[in-house]
Amino acid sequence: MKVRKRTLALGLYFVFLLLPLYWLVNMSLKPNEEILGELTLLPQNVTFENYVTIFTNADWYTGYLNSITYVSLNTIISLAVALPAAYAFSRYSFVGDKHFFFWLLTNRMAPPAVFLLPFFQLYSTFGLIDTHIAVALAHCLFNVPLAVWILEGFMRGVPREIDETAYIDGYSFPLFFATVFLPLIRAGIGVTAFFCFMFSWVELLLARTLTTVEAKPIAATMTRTVSAAGIDWGLLAAAGVLTIVPGALVIWFVRNYMAKGFALGRV
Amino acid sequence: MSLALENVGKTVGHETHIADIDLTMEPGRFYVLLGPTLAGKTTLMRLMAGLDRPTSGRVLVDGGDVTGTPVRKRNVAMVYQQFINYPSFTVYDNIASPLRRAGLSRDEVDRRVRESAETLKLGNLLDRLPGELSGGQQQRTALARALVKDAGLLLLDEPLVNLDYKLREELRVELRQIFSRRSAVVVYATTEPSEALIMGGDTVVLSEGRLLQHGATHDVYHHPASMQVGRSFSDPPMNFIPGEVVGGEAWLGGGRIRLPLSGHLAEIAPGRYSFGVRANHLGVVRNRQDDIAFAASVELSEISGSETFVHVDVDGTAWVVQEEGVHSLGLGENIEVFVNPRNVYAFDANGWLVASPPRPGAREAAE
After folding, report:
1. Which InterPro entries does the entry mention (chain A) (predicted)?
2. Which chain A residues contact residue B88 at CB under 8 A?
3. pTM for the complete prediction?
């Protein structure tokens, strides 16, 4: 009896969880007439027209390319900056290290909107508006602290004696870091990359404000479906489905490390 | 290479970890660093290796000052108490890594890795990752990596302590054979007096960051320079009782027990002394006519295999008696503890050795 109750509860949970997703996919495969005309649980006239539009129309697919470009840039910059920082925090003690470490994390506590105006002003001055690097750098403000925090946890798990053994064996620091140390925190790097990717991929406010045409993210492009003739529901749904795909793929690759990542390596 | 420490000290914050150590180590010899936990063994080794910089004093290698030289530029090898290997490298790559860094040719690396793996019986495990090995095999890998290098200074920080008993015995024998063929300075840290005795060589007794005594292991064991060394270099620690020497006799335990002064004790001058006896020289049964007896009450009796450790209270001092065979003694039972005067050490009021029994080898030959 108890088991059945639990099964029922889980079943309901999944229905509620998956219903919007199902609806999105369902809509993306219907023509607009069917979406607006009647309630169908399965598309009566299956069409891939919406997807074809997105993949063939440069206005649409460049949105994805722009998003992917600045997200990748951001992930690479965040990791490149956070790896040495996290190593320093995990291995050395220096004046104010604990306060500094905590201060880094407080950066994430501020809402992105707070930084909108300063970023806009600053990037306008330097002529960076509407470039991929602008968005990537803006997102670093949130991703670098998180990356440092997660990586530090993973690095702390590697015994200091391994570093020393490497120096005794004659490794130089860069060689040790690249060939011995990085492979040991592979999981941490994967999880960190995932978190950076996720934040940057779903962040809309900064991305939209700092871009106009050339580096416009997909989420901003999606607002184009609103026109005088109404909203193109099918196209919007198809774009939504395609936006979920990269995130789902990334989650699939790091699924085994997720729990450890959410514990920020401190398990 | 020879290694010398000159007035080496290390303080961290306000804590003194190592205080004023002077030590000269000759190539081809084996040194045991003996001391309880927190005695400074690991700190001293790290200073020798160059992993840490001493706060005072100098470290000399072959007469040249290397105090500030980083460990990469020194010719050392080290094995830690924890099994430290590169987890993402195979056993082969682990052992090969110091050779590859030294820029040896591929054939030379291969030859030496296989030779060293053979010595430590890792021949059939070369393709495994350290995570797939047992603790003993992991430590063998770490040892192989340290040995393959032919370093002038080989530091082993309690390398066998995390292994099970059987494996420890086995590896200890192997290590002694391997070290005997080396021309390096070998330093071996241990907390166990018995391990120091088995390994032989020289012993350096450390306590609270100070060097207490340095000499051939058996000399140090049989002639501990001070009460502190006696305590450190015996397991269980040496038992002590205060006494007074008056007119050719010593009175112990508040004057109630007479210790006739003969043999090695014959020469000691009147005054106050502490007399020390090792646990294995105490017994609960009278063995010889001239044994002297102490009244004691039993506090705990531990049976370890074929031996019994009896913790007793003698005049308010805790003693441990190590007795062959299994003896069951009840808690609080009043017994007599026997000791032969031939086995008694005498220390002066400052704790320095005044008289010690002759070496057992010599004594047995005389009997």
Report:
1. BP-dep_ABC_trans_perm (IPR050901), MetI-like (IPR000515), MetI-like_sf (IPR035906)
2. 180, 183-184
3. 0.80
